Amino acid sequence: MDIDDAARYHSIPWVSELLQDTAFVTVPSTNRDTKSSTEDSLFSVTLKSNATLSGFLSQYRRPTPTSGPGGTGGIEEVRMIFILGSNLNGYPGVLHGGIVTTILDECTGLLLVLRSKYKAGDDDALAPGSKTVTAYLNTNFLRPVPTPGAIVVYAKLEETKENRKWKIKGRICDEDDQILATAECLYVKSRSKI
Q: What domain of life does the native source organism fall in (predicted)?
């Protein structure tokens, strides 16, 4: 079975329940695919093992014609389900804070990727030749993120400005929907070549 195969999630009852939620659509997590350019290598190589992130599943909330900031339609919320190993610990049984921040950064950024990929939004964050980058990421650590185990990360678009700035909020939750960490992130369309 592939490390990110959706079937592995159905053995975790609360995750299986999330996957049956018809308000969300499950899509491939393309950041887990190895690319010759080395783009996404942190998640496609370094953090892709049974001892680190042994699973990463992406979903987006089905858009409605009036969803999104200002009622513009499009994908405004995603959730990512991670299966965590123990080799990312800061303390025994606790995910390192830097990895918590990395996961929140990745998930908030993937919201823009999915908006672009599925043409679900009136902005074009990732038009050919353009790149978005993190301008800031403010993280609040509320409770330890336990390992090994599964977590769900939500990201929601809060605001769009000038078709080049996107404010997104994210949160990491456990199986009881208890919030473990939150983030507010601003992405901007880069003016320089990356």
A: Eukaryota
Give the pair of three-digit tokens for residue 101.
Answer: 């921040």
Instruction: Give burial (CB, 10 Å; 0-12/13-18/19+) of 152.
Output: buried
| Fold for the domain defined by 6-189 | Thiol Ester Dehydrase; Chain A (3.10.129)
Task: Kindly tell me the burial class for residue 120, based on how many C-beta atoms sit within 10 Å of its own C-beta (0-12, 13-18, 19 or more).
Answer: middle
**38-42, 72-76, 174-178: the lowest-pLDDT one:** 72-76
Which strands sit side by side in the sheet containing 149-161, from one edge to the other?
A: 24-27, 53-61, 77-84, 149-161, 165-173, 179-189, 132-141
Q: Parallel, antiparallel, or unpaired for β 89-91 and 165-173?
A: unpaired
